[in-house]
Specification:
Oligomer: single chain
Distance between the termini: 29 Å
Number of strands: 0
Radius of gyration: 17 Å
Largest sheet: none
Helix content: over 70%
Number of domains: 1
Strand content: under 5%
Number of helices: 11
């Protein structure tokens, strides 16, 4: 068990960052597990346990701060469930190299989102019928991404709520954690039925991520976000580059440059 302590620490660090930026900790956990040679389904399914734990802790903390739109969050969260089920099933057929390439693009997209999130604030607007339909489709797609990559769908939901629905960023990121609770829970159930996760490692990740989520939600009130944005963006871009290199040259070891 002592040898597995690093997994708890990984979950804790990912939980802090995931809670603060509203994307879930999977964008940290999955690259690390992938670099260590975990198969795609194991990395994604183990990460979803951390995402579920992180979303639970973050939702508890943000609800106390009254920063969650529960009505919208529950609706969008339930809409992700069909997509998460599909994402878990199709993850069976992906090769490690293809997974790395696809996840590299996800990391780049996450980096762009993190840098631009403060610039996409819009005035509150009435939800149109077209946007409601788009939200349903986006929820299904986000569910697939959440379960397939093990990252949650915050990269889709936060811009959707801010740009499409006019929600303030300080409320959109917390609400995305409630949505990620539903997405990650359904993904965990389907991945578990399919036998993908290592339950010991997934449980340790979940423990670390839970407490990281509590800390991250509290720190979000005090930390200067711009410094955090730059740090996380640099880390994600480096990880994306490593993913692309690994897919081309076949390295799987964390230090295999």
């Amino acid at each position: 068990m002592i040898e597995q302590l690093w997994i708890v620490l990984l979950g804790f660090a990912a939980g802090i960052l995931g809670s603060m930026i509203g994307l879930g900790g999977g964008i940290i956990v999955v690259p690390v597990l992938t670099f260590l040679g975990f198969p795609p389904t194991a990395a994604a399914s183990n990460s979803l346990f951390a995402a579920l734990s992180n979303a639970t802790a973050s939702t508890i903390s943000y609800s106390r701060q009254k920063r969650i739109d529960f009505s919208l969050g529950v609706k969008l969260g339930l809409l992700t469930i069909p997509g998460t089920s599909l994402g878990a099933v199709i993850s069976n057929d992906v090769t490690p190299d293809i997974f790395k390439i696809l996840f590299g693009f996800v990391l780049i997209a996450s980096s762009i989102y993190i840098l631009l999130r403060k610039k996409i604030e819009t005035k509150e607007k009435t939800l149109s019928k077209q946007m409601a339909i788009f939200a349903v489709c986006a929820s299904f797609f986000a569910g697939i991404i959440s379960s397939f990559f093990g990252i949650g769908g915050g990269i889709i939901f936060v811009p959707l709520m801010v740009v499409g629905m006019g929600m303030a960023m300080k409320k959109a990121a917390p609400t995305s954690q409630l949505i990620l609770f539903f997405a990650s829970l359904s993904g965990v159930v389907v991945h578990s039925i399919l036998g993908h996760p290592d339950f010991l490692q997934a449980g340790l990740l979940a423990v670390g991520s839970f407490f990281g989520g509590l800390v991250g939600a509290r720190l979000s009130l005090h930390v200067r976000e711009r410094y955090l944005q730059i740090l996380v963006t640099v880390v994600l871009l480096i990880a994306a580059g490593k993913m692309f290199l690994d897919s081309m040259y076949g390295h799987s070891n964390l230090f295999g440059f």
